[in-house]
Amino acid sequence: MRITTTDTAYHLDSGHYRLTVSRTDPSAELEGWMTLSLIASVATRSDRDETYETLPPVLAERGDVAVFDFPQRSTAWEAKTVRLTCTPETIALEVRVEGDGVIGDVTLLGGRAVLNTRAAGTFRSGVHARGVFNPTPTHPVHVVRPASAPLALTVIGDASPGRLHAVFSPPPLALAFGKGEPDGGATSVPEGPWLGASVRAGIADLTFTELRYEPLDGGALLRFDYECQTAVSGAWTSPAVVFRAASSPWEAVSHHREDLVEHGLAPQGPVAERHDWWSGTIFCGWGAQCARAAGRSPVELSRQDLYDEWLARLEEHGVVPATVVIDDRWQLTYGNQEPDPAKWPGLREWIADRHARGQRVLLWWRAWSPDGLPAEECVTDAAGRAVAADPSNPAYRRRIGEIMRRLLGDLDADGFKIDFTQWFPSGSHLKAYGSTWGFSLLHELLATMYAAAKRVKPDALMITHTPHPAFGDVTDMIRLNDVLELDARGEPVPAVDQLRFRHAVAAHAMPEHLVDTDQWPMPSRADWLAYAREQPSLGVPALYYVESIDNTGEQITGDDLRQVATWWRR
């Protein structure tokens, strides 16, 4: 790595990128990609954090690593320094503050300041790329969007407008900027080159709930939302944003994983032994429940007699799933997870019968639900009302252990399909027992469940929709989750195209983990058949439909099921 110095700048040529670091203002030019603003803001509950003076950068060279520190005077902190760490392949950007405060949000690649020139307001990095790749499914479906379009990587979401971006919760925290013009295809990816921008942080430092890419008029910054739940006393350093050239967005996601593993921030692969039965075909009853509902709530149809009926029809036509998922709502309460005797009058015996047939049984679990839990085991709002289960609370963790002994031990179930991880208890006024928040609190929830399940039944299968590499130690299989519908122009997006995109993200973020290909909802019978044919090549096939397609009412014939059986036996 070669550095040359002039009166106004440091010129760095690593062989993989060229970077010009200004000596007169807080900026750096990453040739061909970005004009990096080296202003950062770390807002607190009481202060916005505005930089009111920037000092010249200080360069320290350590072998083939160059570190540029940009000291800045802050209205909120005793000291603040933005650091660029340059290796031959990567550039890492972070901010360090000293003092006391509770963090609201953090911006990198820009922030609020009054510069030495007296220019004032919010500053952003200049973005020279044409498109930005988003690794999380969104509605409308838009994988590579114009670089002028915002996006969010988050653990918060639902089906409301502007919130259906947590189908993966959490997704890998890796964007990719491309030179090619996005062609408007919902899942199409232009040719390279690409610049990856990923977040380097382990679970302990992932205490934010959302990372937002906020572009405006040719500029952009990144905003981390800590929701006033992370306290600083002394000193604090933000997660680093790591830039690295890539040939494709998929390579950028792989680089993200490799970077976390290399720095000891993510496991190399799954932590539990993989068991052969995990790879067997899955039947999940949710699609059949929806198709049979006919104006009723599908949760009323998670019933023992209906599951027997559906499984018998599948077997009649050659489809014998290795694993059966009993979906929403087999339980009386989501929080305490006790079987509903009116719907499942003999669940223990039913599971034993399925075991005798050579099948395994998973139970659907709604994460975070406070239903049936005492408020003292929950995250609470300003009125003291339960908002979500609180995994930082020892009483709730003990409850999870008891639930696992009851469901995996007494009932002899074989694991869980864990859903709704995106219903995170977001809010700066919320109160939890412990101090973790954001991605970290979700990991604590899943880690508690995972450890308790494995203590009772070491081969229990835990399925989540959390394809962030640091979550590799709390899941055995990544579920691709619900299929969406339309692109940004209001046109239908083939389910198979969505499956391929999601599989590519999961396979590059967590290559050693199994993938549950899911299958709901399907827009039509034709889409369902095309999807079913593709599933074995992209993961563990999962069948959701038995009689008809819920969206169209189209009937599923015996020939259709026999065709699926043939595809899945190959």
Q: Main traits of this protein?
A:
2 domains; 21-stranded antiparallel beta sheet; 31 strands; single chain; TIM Barrel
How large a portion of the residues is in β-strands, by DSSP E?
A: 25-35%
Described by the principal axes of the CA atoms, the overall outline is globular
Please tally the β strands and state the result. Answer: 31
Indicate the radius of gyration in whole angstroms.
25 Å
Helical run tally: 9
What's the CATH topology name of the largest domain? TIM Barrel
Helix content: 10-25%
CA-to-CA gap between the ends? 52 Å
Low-confidence stretches: none
CATH class of the largest domain: Alpha Beta
CATH architecture field of the largest domain: Alpha-Beta Barrel
Q: Taking all residues together, what is the mean pLDDT?
A: 97
CATH homologous superfamily annotation of the largest domain: Glycosidases
Question: How would you characterize the largest beta sheet?
Answer: 21 strands, antiparallel
- What class do helices, strands and sheet pairing give? alpha+beta
State the domain count.
2
Protein name: Alpha-galactosidase
InterPro entries: GH (IPR017853)
Description:
This protein has 570 residues and is of the alpha+beta class. It has 2 domains: 1-128 and 217-238, no CATH class; 276-568, Alpha-Beta Barrel (TIM Barrel). 21% of the residues lie in helices and 31% in strands. The strands form 3 sheets. It has a 21-stranded antiparallel beta sheet that branches. Helix 7 packs parallel to helix 8 (525-538). The N and C termini lie far apart (52 Å). The mean pLDDT is 97.
